[in-house]
What we know:
Strand content: under 5%
Number of helices: 2
Structural class: mainly alpha
Shape: globular
Number of strands: 0
Distance between the termini: 46 Å
Order of helices and strands: HH
Low-confidence stretches: none
Amino acid sequence: xxxxxxxxxxxxxxxxxxxxxxxxxxxxxxxxxxxxxxxxxxxxxxxxxxxxxxxxxxxxxxxxxxxxxxxxxxx
Length: 75
C-alpha cells in the first residue's frame, strides 16, 4: 500500500486533518525511536510499537484539545 494511504475503516470527521494526523504519526514514531516502513505497510511492525505510537498520538490530541478548551474559557 502506498505511503499516506490507510486500510482503516475509520472515517475522519474532518478529512482535511488527514495530512496533519499522518505528520503527527511520523513525529511520534521518531520521538519513540520507532522506524515506520517507507512503503507505508505496517503489517510487519510489532504490535507493541504500533500501540505505543497510537497511545502517544491520543495523549497528544487530548492535550491539544484541553489547551484549546482552556483557552476558550479564560477569555
